[in-house]
Each structure stands twice: as C-alpha cells, then as structure tokens.
## 1
Amino acid sequence: MTRKERYDGIIGWFAANRPAVASELHYQNPFQLLVAVILSAQCTDKRVNLVTPALFQRFPSAASLAAASFEEVHPFVKSVSYPNAKVRHLIGMAQMLEAEYGGQVPSDIDALMRLPGVGRKTANVIASIVYDQPVIAVDTHVFRVAHRLGLSDGSTPFAVEQDLERHIPAAQRPIAHHWLILHGRYICTARSPKCAECPLTAWCRDYAREIKR
C-alpha cells in the first residue's frame, strides 16, 4: 500500500465518520484557550478542565493575569504538572500580550512562539483552532499515531508535522489534528492499543506487520 493510499483511506474514514470534532479543553475565548493549552503540557485535558474555571474567574483577561503575582496564581494551578514553571509562563505570556499585542492573542505562528511557555505545538494549536490556519500541531499522541499508521517516519515532531501537512489538504488540517489526537487518546493508546476496536486497521502499517508475524 502506498502512503497516498493510506492517507486517502484514513482521512476519508475520519471525514465520513468524524465530521465534527473539537478540542476537549474548555474555553470561551482565545486567551482562555492559550492559558489552557499552556497548562496542558504533559498534563491531561481532564485535569486542566478542573482547574481553569476558578482560574478564569479570578483572572478573566490578559491584563488581570499580567498584574498578578506568582503567589496569587499558584494556588489555582498547583495540581497540574510542573506548576511553578507554568505559573511563570502564564504571567510572562500575559505580560507580553499586554505589552506587545494589546492584550490580544496573535495569529502569526512566529509571534505566538515568542510568548513564554509557547512552543511550536502550542502555537499551531492556537493558530488552527482560533484562526483556522492550515497547520497541524504534533503532540505525543499525534506523533505516535502517525508512526503506527504509517503516515510518517519523521524522527522529530516537526518532521511529522511536515509529512502530515504535505499529504493532508489545507482545508482539513485544522480538524485532522483533532482526529489524530483523539484517536491516540482513546484507541491507539501508548500502552495496549485497542486494535480490535480500531476502524483504521485496513490502512494501518503496524497492524499489517503484526498480522504477518
């Protein structure tokens, strides 16, 4: 099976069967999504969704967060992974938004990556969800799923991102991130993937190798 056939089959299945999927993070505006994505690094969306309601109530804008101290913010996020670093990132991010972007979340990838706590994955998440830009964020789930299915052999997240964007039509890239991440979260899990429940086995490279053994 060619790589193009894999992409056509997999993307075709998702488009037909998962036409409406979205981030599982809870947010009401771009600023809240940016905060939530920063908090979600190496942490579950479920845990982030537990802490953000109180955080957003206390700090509803970049201006309010920018004016906060470490001691004021820390109690709200102390249950997430790496809370000390994330508090510093959140405050620094909010201060830069206020100082350089009028309190608004920028749409440009390079501008987003200048913000404290924002790497390429986070920048791509914001750009695709908020601004519908044709980019794909590659996290651990997407990286794993892309390799197992045979969509990419890239050794880095950026290499996988390039492969995915090369083969997935621009209009489908924002939703393709959600297709792959949710598939990795619930079906193609890191340990004991649920191949018996997987609808993509007809195109999956790892599954084809396994049944040949």
## 2
Amino acid sequence: MITESLLKIDELHFSYGGARILRGVSLELLKGDVVCIIGPNGAGKTTMLRTVTGLEKPTSGEILFNGTRVDHLSPRKILRAGISLIPEQGRLFPDMSVFENLMMGAYLRKDKKNIKKDLDLVYRYFPKLGARARQRAGSLSGGERQMAAVGRALMSGPKLLLMDEPSSGLSPQLVSMVGQMILEINRDGMSVLLVEQNADMALNVSRYGYALEQGRITLEGKAKELISHPMVKKTYLGI
C-alpha cells in the first residue's frame, strides 16, 4: 500500500501583475502514485506546475519534495532533485533528431552507463522512437511527439513526472494511447502528477484527483469516486 509522501503542496499562493492566480492550493502525492488535477483553461493548473519546477516563485506557501522544501530552489536544482516537467504539446526541438531530443533530457547527468540504460528503457516503452531515432523531431506525428516528450523527461532520471495536458490536440485514439502510456510507466514505479482538461482520461488513470477552479481546489477524492460525482459529471464529463 502506498503511504509515503513524495510531493506535498501546502497553502500555495501565486500572484502575477496584481492578479491572484493560485489561492491557497494544497495537495499531496504519494510515492508510486498517479494523481490528476482537472480544471478548465485559466484555472491555474499550468502555473501550479511551474511553481513546483521553480519556473515561478510562489507568493507564499510551501512545496515539499521527499520531505524537503524546494520552493526556494532554482529549476536546475529541482530537476536534479528528481522532478521533471513535460510541457503541453511536448515542445521538442523540431530541427534536432529524435535521439538528440532524448539526450537533451540527460544533459545534467554524468552517469553515462545509466544514461544508456535509460535510453534503452525509453526505446522499450516506445519502439517507434527507436525506429525514428535519426529522424527530425519536427516530422513526427502528434502521438509520436508526445512519446518523445515523455521519453526526454524520463532521460533526466526523475522520481516524479509532471505532465501538462498530455492529451492536448490529440485524437480520441491517441488520447487513449497517452492514458495507457501513463499506466505503463506507473506500473514500473514512476510517480506522476497529471494536469488535464480531459477529465475522463485523467480520472481513469489516476488513483486520486483534484478539481482546480479559479486558483482554488474545489473538490478532491479518490478518482474512481470523483468520476461519478454529480459536479464532475456535469462540469467536466458533459453527462
């Protein structure tokens, strides 16, 4: 049973240009867990991920990773600690090869032997990337770009993957593929914090979920219970 906390966010506030974006967000993710945050555009989901990775500094509140505060650390140090962000739509380097994009994920690492092992693991997860290793990343399909973005994040050797809208712009078939990808990575022990507008996919691959609206957590609970909650069904599932 999962019991040990990996990420804990406590009363997180963030303001930008006088606008309050996050208003006392608190959440927890346990080691080996998949947790999702659902919510509409403009709810503050991406901003919250950016504070966890150090790209934005919170106005107040605490972020603890493995029991240590990280909200004052630089993005580089947070990446070294084991938190890796997969941005929306992957944001690959289109003129670089798939292999070069993957290796960019390992640029802070010195352990060449383990880098090779992780590259082999990425190719095991995503055989298409191995077949297209020398191909320009800009020529990949939408699903393949998402695979490459996840592979690049895995190459950093993370303990926690933050995924920002991984299903954005994908067909229903590819959305299902992304869900299966998350489940497979998690089965191998990877912890995942998933931010999604696609509540159906997110709740079906997660153990626990939060709804974020206008910078506040408005609902939380076990994912299998949230998916049948009247508010979630009406607001996010269109039922």
## 3
Amino acid sequence: MKLNRQDKLLLNEKALSVRAETLKIHGLAQGTRIASSLSPVEIFVVLYYGGILSYDPANPMWAGRDRFIVSKGHGSISLYPILSDVGFFDKRELGIVCQKGAIAGAIPDPHIPGYETINGSLGHGLGVASGVALALRARNRAERVFVLLGDGEMSEGSVWEAIMFAGHHGLDNLIVILDNNKACMLDFCKNVIDLEPIEKKIRLFGWTVKRVDGHDIGKLYNALSIFKGQSTGRPKFLVADTIKGKGVPSLESDPLSHTRNILPDDIEAAIRGLR
C-alpha cells in the first residue's frame, strides 16, 4: 500500500507540528529528553494518523486495539501531542508536563491514557510485547503488537533474549520498529556497541526484516502497512534510520545530545528553524 500525495503532505505537516509541540513541552519541562524524542516523530505520526494502529481514545483498553509498547519511554515525549490531539487526554495537559497534578512526566507511565506499560527501564518492552503477542495468538485474536525500540537499548541482553524467543515461537503478530538514530547516552552507538550489520543479525533469529528512512513518511507507511497485513509465520523488524535531535542542527551533530537541553529562551528559535 502507498500513500497518495495529499495524504503524504498532510502527514508531513503533522510531523512538523508534533516537533514544534515537543519543543514547547521541553521548554516547560527541562527534565524531558528532547533529542531522543525528536527522532521517532514520523514513526508516531504514521502509526496514529496513517491508520496503521487500531485504537479507540474513548476506550483506551478496548479489547480490539493493537497494542503499542513504547520501550524507549524517555524518547516518546513527542507522543504526548499526538495522544492529546486524537483524544486520549485533554490538550491542556501539554502545558503542565512534569508539574504537580499532571498525568504526564519526563518518563511516561501507564496511567497516561494510550500507554500500555511502564516505560522507564530500558530493555523490557520487547519481552513484555512478546508475551502479549503469544497470549493474543493463543486466544486466536487478530490484534497486532507493535514495539518501539531504541538502538542504544539494543545493548541490553534482555532485548536479544526476546528476539530469540519471538523468533523461536514464530510470533508473526509482533512488529518491532527500531528508532535507529545511531546515538546513545554517551556517544555514537558505533563507538560503544556497533549494531551493524543489524539486518543480518536479526534475520538469523528467524525474523522478517526491512530497512527504511525513518523520516520518510511514505516509506514508513508502506513498510508498516505491509508488515501489519502479512502472516508469514515470522515476527517482523523494521529498521528505521533516523537522526537524533531531528530538526535541531545543534543536536543532530552532537554525540552527547541525549542529555542536552534546549534552554527555554532558545525554544522559539528552534521551532522557527524546524524543517
């Protein structure tokens, strides 16, 4: 399946808007991880606005929903504007992130409508998702389980245990998206633990693997729509090549962008410079 030109333009406009809203949130809540949250924006936009995920904001625990487990929780502040926009919670919450009484903090928790699991400790999301996928299959359910992983998170042994488990059990209702922004907390990933050749490695464990530009709305949509419709007897793994701090040049080129903040006085300039 492919997006038509008009839909692609609309989704790209959404992505630009989500980046701007994410920067505004960071200006108010400096504890949020801004660089990590800017890289998966197009992934979130395609999932929620592109019709890939089945969900019901009026009933977040609807049995017929696709499960979306955000394993790199710290890097999903950009999901807040989307969840509020589609109706999971009031948009006024975006102005009080990390404040007393707010539902949303620097690290998302499952009390936020639209989040499935606890998302603080890295390396756990894929294991949880594999169990959910296995349970859904045992009940003959048609829902899919999507997972967002970070590439720094791929250093965790628990991730590879889950990769082996899902491959062994042929969980073809499980779809992993790797936010491959190539930078972890202390350096570029290639200087810490190099994942490449990541496609070859994942295939060896019995997965179907594709690789796309993670900022290309059309390519993301095409790959994810195909994955959701496939029943191949194998779990699916999408390597989405992204840029950490996407849209903010000073973050894009910094190997230590993970822990950098954009000061509140500089937020408006960063928003004006978005591309």
